[in-house]
Amino acid sequence: MSEQTKTDVKKDEKKHVFDNPKNVKRVIHALYVACAISLAGDFFIHRHAEHSWEQLFGFYALYGFAACVLLVLLAKEMRKVIMRKEDYYDE
User: How far apart are CA 22 and CA 32, in angstroms?
Assistant: First the structure.
């Protein structure tokens, strides 16, 4: 590919928000702040817990984290069962 063609391709490529690593870092920092705020909310919000473990500090943060980890691990295992070849629909 010639130099002129490469530059033409780069000009035609549309830049997305997350192509810039600074934007990715901003989103990650925003998620850290959201997690800290929700964890700090345990000090100020009175919960009407039905089970004793719901009254533990940070219970809902840990519960959400554990649920997300479980979903990722489950998805990785499901991938082995339902994954198809790349050209599955072309055949």
Answer: 15
| Total Cβ atoms within 10 A of residue 15 | 7
- Render the burial of 30-68: b for 16+ CB within 10 Å, e for the rest: eeeeeeeeeeeeeeeeeeeeeeeeeeeeeeeeeeeeeee
Tokens of 31: 């998620």
Angle value at C-alpha 60, between 54 and 64, nearest 5 degrees: 135
| Predicted pLDDT of residue 8 | 62
pLDDT in tens, 29-45: 999 999 899 888 888 88
